[in-house]
Amino acid sequence: MRVLSLVTNSHSRFYRQQCAGLTERGHEVNTVAVPGRSKESGRSPWTYAKYYPRVVAASFGDYDLVHANYGLSAPPAVAQPSLPTVLSLWGSDLMGTYGWLSRYCARFAEEVIVMSPEMAALLDRPTHVIPHGIDLELFRPLPQSFARREVGWDDDAYQVLFPYRPSRPLKNFERAERVVDIARERVDRPIELRVAIDVEHSRMPVLMNAADAVLLTSKREGSPNTVKEAMACNVPVIATDVGDLAERLEPISRSAVSDDDTALAAALAETLRAGERSDGREAIAEIGLQRQLDRLESVFEQAVDAA
């Protein structure tokens, strides 16, 4: 198929992974991205006002459909008169400030994709629940001793990975610090709280395998890739109850979900003392990248047939 792909952040690693996978399968994907990466880099209402006519003009090209990735790219997708539209919502675009816009635009798309059943419940229409796929060849278990040497982490301390920039408010690093402070009172070795700053995606499996646990304290998520990547490495995950994490982590050993700091700290301490890996990889196999691409192709076909 020939796909006109709209996105607010073309640098997103799972978006680039998706486009590369579709291209490898013989599809033609032409990306039209919103200029800039944030308000600080020049993105404003005027930026979107100029973006929308570009999209409508591009829609008259030789394409089979429009795929709008993230809710803020949806208005021009559903407004253009020429092509069927598939709308993929990523999480904060439906559950955050502009959720009303995503819900409105979803009414006019031929097909809508969401990341979790929780997101699907927010829309008054049928949807496809297709989480972003995980590269299971890249994210795989590695010997912790090897990973520790690679990153230079101390073997005499427990290592807990917060897999984001601390400066991202939605990820709530302050809560992670509180949880670790409480957990330190429950273990007999130091706990080092590590963060991922300017880490190449290809390097993340090493950091995850070097960690005794991954700690996620986000205020809001859809179906976070980071958790699924940690599961693919068999690394325990302790997380707040956001998105689909309760359902995804409940059956996984040495992992826990809670909205209470004390409970999170207790679960973290227990996991650290046990010193065991999880069994997450087996559970995550169903959402490998190739499976995601299979399902995405099916949705594209349905949108074209429905138009």
Please characterize this protein's 3D structure.
The protein is α/β, with parallel strands linked by helices. The protein has 14 helices and 11 strands. The strands form 2 sheets. The protein has a 6-stranded parallel sheet with strand order 2-1-3-4-5-6, sandwiched between helices. The protein has a 5-stranded parallel sheet with strand order 8-7-9-10-11, sandwiched between helices. Strand 1, helix 1 and strand 2 (28-33) form a beta-alpha-beta unit. The chain is elongated.
What's the layout of helices and strands?
Elements: E1 2-7, H1 13-24, E2 28-33, H2 45-58, E3 65-69, H3 74-79, E4 85-88, H4 92-95, H5 99-106, E5 111-114, H6 117-120, E6 128-129, H7 144-151, E7 158-162, H8 173-184, E8 191-195, H9 204-210, E9 213-216, H10 225-232, E10 237-239, H11 245-249, E11 256-257, H12 261-274, H13 280-284, H14 289-306
Parallel strand pairs: 1-2, 1-3, 3-4, 4-5, 5-6, 7-8, 7-9, 9-10, 10-11
List its salient traits:
11 strands; 14 helices; 6-stranded parallel β-sheet; alpha/beta; 307 residues
Tally the beta strands: 11
What percent of the residues sit in helical stretches (DSSP H or I)? 40-55%
Counted by DSSP, the helix tally is 14
Arrangement of strands in the largest sheet: 2-1-3-4-5-6
Average pLDDT for all residues: 92
**Weakly predicted, low-confidence segments:** none
Helices and strands, in order, run as EHEHEHEHHEHEHEHEHEHEHEHHH
Strand content: 5-15%
How far apart, in Å, are the first and last alpha carbons?
Answer: 15 Å
The computed structural class is: alpha/beta
Shape field: elongated
Using only C-alpha atoms, the radius of gyration works out to 20 Å
Sheet of most strands: 6 strands, parallel
